[in-house]
Every structure is written in C-alpha cells, then in structure tokens.
Amino acid sequence: MSLDAELLLDWFADTARDLPWRRPECTAWGVLVSEIMLQQTPVARVEPIWHEWLARWPTPSAMAEASQGDVLRAWGKLGYPRRALRLHAAAQAIAEQHDDVVPQDVDTLLTLPGIGAYTARAVAAFAYGQKCPVVDTNVRRVVARAVHGAGDAGPPSTTKDLRDVEVLLPDDDAAVYSAALMELGALVCTARAPKCADCPVFDACAWQLNGRPAYDGPAKAVQKFAGTDRQVRGLLLDVLRGTDEPVAKTRLDLVWSDAGQRDRCLHSLLVDGLVEQTREGLFALPGEH
DNA sequence: GACGCGTGGGG
DNA sequence: TCCCCAAGCGT
Fold first, then answer.
1. Which one of A68, A110, A173, A238 is CB 3.0 to 4.6 Å from A287, fit for a cystine?
2. Strand B contacts in A 230-249 (CB under 7 A)
3. With contact defined as beta carbons under 8 Å apart, do A200 and A184 qualify?
4. CATH number at residue A187
C-alpha cells in the first residue's frame, strides 16, 4: 500500500491533462469510443478523430446506422482498423439489445466485441464511477515500480494484475484514483526516462527505496513492422480508403511488389471483413455495394 | 501464453 | 538512422 491516495489524487487534480473524454459532460458512449481508439494508440492522434466521431455519431444507434465503409474511412489512419469494425458491431449490439445505453456492468461489457479486460473496467470506472481495477500498460508499470520495486512490469497476467491493483483502490474516489494511476504512468512514470523528480509518490516508491534496480524479467518482444503483412495490409486499405469507387486488383497490385504476400494479405483482409469483392470482381471497403 | 494486428512520433 | 513504443483484443 505504498501509493497514498491523497497524494495521487491531489497531484491528479493539479496536473491532469484536460482530455475531452474526461469532462463531466462526456457521455458513456464518448468514453467507450475513446477507450477503443486509445488501444495501442497515442492520445495526440486520437483526439481529433474522437471529436469527429462524436459529432457525427453522438449515440450508439447513430453509429449503428452507418455503413462499415463509412466507419473505416472515418477511422482513417488510427491503425488496427479491426477495432473500428468491432466498435461498429458493439454500437449495433448496444442499440439493439441495451436500449442504446452503454452497459454499466463489467460482465455485460465483456460480451461486446472489442471490449476486453481493460476496456470493460475503464468504461465501468470512467463512465460510471465504479470502483474496479483498471489495468493498462501504464498502471502495470507504475505498480511494478512503486509497489514491487522492480524496474519494469513483467509479462501481463490479467488475474494477478487485477488483484495487484484492486488492493490499492481507495473506497472514495476509486475511479479518479484509477485515472490518476494511468496518468502517472503516462506522464511521469514513463517507460523510458521516468521523471522521478516530478513524482508525487517518490518518497514511497519501492523502486527508489530498492536502489532503482534494472528490469530483470524476460526480454520484451520487439514488434517488427517493415515488410510484414501488417504493413502490406495497411497499404492495401489505404488505397481503398482513398476512393469512393471499387477498384480493380491491378490497382492494388501497385502497392507491393511481392505478389505472393500481396495476395495473401488481400485474402486475409477479405476474411477479416475489412474488404469486400463486388460481383464484377472489384475491391472496396465493405458495406457499400 | 504467444502471436498477429497499423501507424507515426520521439529519443 | 533506426528503434522503441503508444489507454489491448481475439485466437
């Protein structure tokens, strides 16, 4: 229990970023959209797209009526576009099965596409003020250092990670405390070059008291991108986002020289539902033809 | 539990 | 220049 709630809450009140999904007027739907967009994606890239989305689709039912193609085009280059399809499907489920109201219950949220252990609890806490452990990569790092005295978090383990954070939560303002833990990891207790001089819990930090040991867990796998299917899929989708009309395969063939990889990627995009083939054999974003 | 899934900014 | 990394999820 080395993360004093009062210190953290005061620090958060003084220095937290003014993000639109944290404002009191933001709806639960707005919170959900932000959480999906923020998965593996920096705040600076999310913010403008989030504003566009909430203005265009202010409710789940509004988005449910849009086509998949429109949603994918509005997603733009945020990355991992399958998130956009899952959010669209979640919007349809909320509209049709939950009276257009984002569920409050973690177990119900977990049944929705694209909502996992983190996002379900983030919505419960940040949209509905519930006391439940919200564990993302920032929180895992803060707990690893400040509580366990390690240089960084080891491999994720949902059960253990939830338990670690649950015991920290104060009875009052638990949701704000959760936001503060995340903010601390995002702004101060960062992966590279943590700003310990600015840390509100410096005096209680187990990592400091432990002599700042280096991370000694298993090496983290570094994800390659150049030359992977992920890059090729991104190039193919970028062509389709940029046009209103279905395109011939010869047009898609221009984006990558390796025909085998190209065809494999186009096929996987079809399987994922990110691309559709028209009766004429042309290719387009789904749901418009 | 490991792997695949986009994209771009900063050190 | 590279290389690391950024509020995960589904299989």
1. A68
2. 230-231, 233-235, 237-238
3. yes
4. 1.10.1670.10
